[in-house]
Amino acid sequence: MDSARDGSTVLRVEHLTMRFGGLVAIDNLSFDVKRGTITALIGPNGAGKTTVFNCITGFYKPTEGRIALQRGDAAVWGSLESLTDSGKRGVVRADGALYLLERMPDFLVAQQARVARTFQNIRLFPGMTVLENLLVAQHNPLMLASGYTFLGVLGFPSYASAERAALDKARGWLERFGLIERADDPAGVLPYGAQRRLEIARAMCTEPVLLCLDEPAAGLNPRESAELNELLLAIRDEFAVSILLIEHDMSVVMGISDHVVVLDYGVKIADGAPEAVRNDAKVIAAYLGVADDEVAKVEAEVGL
Amino acid sequence: MGSGAQSKRVDMTGALRDAGFTGLIAFGVLLPLIGFLTGVDGSNQLVLTTRWPLLFAVVAIIAACRFLYCFALMPWLARRAQRPAPSPTQASFSLKLRGALARWFIPSAIGFFVAYPLIIYFAIGTSGGQKWIDNFGIQILIYVMLGWGLNIVVGLAGLLDLGYVAFYAVGAYSYALLAKTFGLSFWILLPLAGVLSSFWGILLGFPVLRLRGDYLAIVTLAFGEIIRLILINWVALTNGYAGIISIPRPTFFGIPFNANDDGFAATFGLSYSPLYRVIFLYYLILALALLTCFVTVRLRRLPIGRAWEALREDEIACRSLGINTTNTKLTAFAMGAMFAGFAGSFFAAREAFISPESFTFIESATILAIVVLGGMGSQIGVVIAAIVMIGGTEILRELDFLKTIFGPTFDPTQYRMLLFGFAMVVIMIWRPRGLISMREPSVFLKERKAIAADLVKQGRG
User: CA of B322 to nearest chain A CA: how many angstroms apart?
Assistant: First the structure.
């Protein structure tokens, strides 16, 4: 896999619109995620951030728009228009692949396009052990190794070696995330912060190209969220995974993201480097209300 | 001292008042049920008779039980709850005991089931032994197998299936019709019946893929009834209510079990006895049940089994990990249905007669009760529950001595459902998640730790 942060685009969202009945949750949103970078999607509550995630990961079918994901050689972007016209879900070449995520059901987005995600309210398998959670994440390669169950039931050795490899991989991620001591405990008894980390480790076990994290630092204490920052930077740098994250914790957003997209009422109001976004007047207004010098004017209008 | 006597007296009046209320409620409920009896007299007229002594006796017993419960049992339970928890050494001892039990229990249980016909044969002999092997052994093992099959759908995948008996019926009718029409042997039709049943399992699976919980339960219930109604009404194929008679019996690798010169007994130089067939059928169903168990245990450790359990835990998380939940659910339905198909074809071959009467909803309910009582997902729990539920029913037939106590008209089998209900209530109070509610992890790094039932989800479907 190419680990270079060559500035090419891994995910391109264009004119994304999502309507629920009369409610426009996302209105004509376009942004890019560059390869090997961390992009933060921020905005006040109800801005439509999770809806964007659900559209990207196939849980919602967007009303309008195109969501293209590319992996491998960036030259495959050239076939974007012909792919769109062909009506197919994706094009796979020897040196790269391009997928139109809005055309794929959720499990194929994860399986073929390799987009992994976590959830705002953690979704683990609480009655299964930590280790089992990570093995479920490797379902598709293991299924293939077990000959779609037939060879596995008959006890072919090819499956045994595949399972050993899967266990090694799981062990590696557990060590990296500091969960190795809890490997045989049920996921449901882990403390909150460990459950958040486990969900990210589970997503990483699917070997994603793009990792979508929905509020990974929610409910973490300052020390834990600092550790999370380290982990996410390590994932970005070592595994060439591009990360798209929704976050309210500004220490995480400003500390690690390379690029920030700000949503308000489903509309993109800012898009750029963290520093630029932090000083953007529209962003400040969306988060804090109107600027100081306008307060008097607004109060006069309201009649105070 | 004085205050102790005081509280005792208060307890007494409280218990008496409680018992009085309970008696009143019991009187209200039982007045129409026990107090009045409608019947037909000699001139075909409807007559109403009253049974006051019986009614008052039952009400008095209920009130007395309530009084004892409030006065004696409840304080005792409260005292017991206050006692300190067992010390760590005691706990580790009980853990060791459990480990030893687990290690020895399964091999000795399998050994017992294998030796059971021989034990009966030598203990009781040929004439009385047949009943014990047939009615007890084979009957229980059929339900063990059905319970293990349903366990895949309900216990592992968390999909509540109330129409499981439909697949049992498909297996039975597949064998009966194909064997009678084409004269195919049992050994060819056994796998074929499994394939046909799993095909119907997939057919049921498609429409219910999007349903959950109560809705799924109702549709599967309806499916079970549809299959039964088709069996009743498609007379040209199934012979309706009359059923199918003289279904060919399975042979011992081509040697039939009869009194002829080429029969089993003559071939092996034994004197003819119907017991040989029964023993053969016993080992056949034992092998089929063990196959079901073996495959299920294997599947649990394969990706498909983990996907089933993950599906029960959280379907959305499964989809986010690239698991095709449609295929996963359909394979669960197909697998469960296949084992019911095997059991069904065995049932048809054993009885040599099948009719839609054998595949009513109560069968589905019994199988589901076995799975739920045993503890969803637990293989051993299913065996224990099947022995209790099915063996218990059969035992009731043997309690003839009760007639000497309650009079010649007393029939213990009539109290079957009452006892079932009672057992259900007790189990649900005592162990709401079934007899064996711990989940065994399918894989571990250092130590296999059982997972407490309250962490394991029951599935929403």
Answer: 4
List of chain A residues whose C-beta atoms are within 8 Å of the C-beta of residue B292: none
Question: What pLDDT is attached to residue B304?
Answer: 93
Instruction: Enumerate the residues of chain B whose CB falls inside 8 A of the CB of residue A111.
Output: 322, 324
Ranges of H-type helices in chain A: 49-56, 80-86, 106-111, 130-137, 139-145, 150-153, 157-176, 192-204, 222-239, 250-256, 274-278, 281-288, 292-302
Looking at domain A1-114+207-304, its CATH superfamily turns out to be P-loop containing nucleotide triphosphate hydrolases (3.40.50.300)
Q: What percentage of chain B carries pLDDT values higher than 90?
A: 38
Whether residue A279 is predicted with pLDDT greater than 80 in this model: the reply is yes
Contact check, Cβ <8 Å, B323/A149: no
Selected for mutation to probe chain B from A128, A154, A168 (highest B CB count within 10 Å) is: A128
State the nearest Cα–Cα gap between A302 and chain B, in angstroms: 46
State chain B's mean pLDDT as an integer: 85
Domain ranges of chain B: 2-78, 98-398+431-455
Residue among B424, B427, B381, B442 nearest B148 (CA): B381
CB contact under 8 A, A129 and B455: no
The CATH class for the domain spanning B98-398+431-455 reads: mainly alpha
pLDDT at A3 exceeding the cut of 50: no
Cross-chain residue pair B445–A57, CB shorter than 8 Å: no
Beta-carbon count within 10 A of B218 CB: 15
Residue-range domain boundaries for chain A: 1-114+207-304, 123-206
Q: Which band of pLDDT confidence, cut at 50, 70 and 90, is reported for residue B4? A: very low
Q: Among residues B360, B287, B367, B328, which one has the least CA distance to residue B459? A: B328
Q: Are the Cβ atoms of A119 and B455 closer than 8 angstroms?
A: no
Task: Look at A108 and B322 and tell me if their CB atoms are within 8 Å.
Answer: yes
| Encoded tokens for A153 | 């039931």
Per-residue model confidence (pLDDT) at position B267: 76
Question: Smallest Cα–Cα separation from B384: which of B434, B451, B342?
Answer: B434
CB-based contact, A119 to chain B, within 8 Å: yes
Which residues 6+ apart lie within 8 Å of B225 measured at CB? Answer: B163, B361
CB-based contact B452 A136, cutoff 8 Å: no
Of A283-292, A294-303, B84-93, the least confident:
B84-93
Question: Which of B298, B314, B439 is facing A153, going by the closest CB pair?
Answer: B298
ipTM: 0.89
Tokens in use for B33? 């049920």
Q: Report the distance separating Cα B232 and Cα B238, nearest Å.
A: 7
The arithmetic mean of pLDDT across residues B11-26, rounded, is: 88
CA-to-CA distance for A185 and A179, rounded, in angstroms? Answer: 10
Cβ pair B306:A136 closer than 8 A = yes
Structure tokens that stand for A3 in this block = 């680990």
Strands A64-72, A96-100: parallel, antiparallel or unpaired by DSSP? antiparallel
Q: Compare CB distances from A146 to B302, B320, B448 and report the shortest one's residue.
A: B302
State the smallest CA–CA distance between residue B311 and chain A in angstroms.
9
More confident residue, A156 or B185: B185
Per the CB < 8 Å rule, is B449 touching A59? no
pLDDT at position B5 over 50:
no
Q: Which tokens in the block code for residue B453?
A: 């039932």
CB pairs under 8 A between A and B: 139
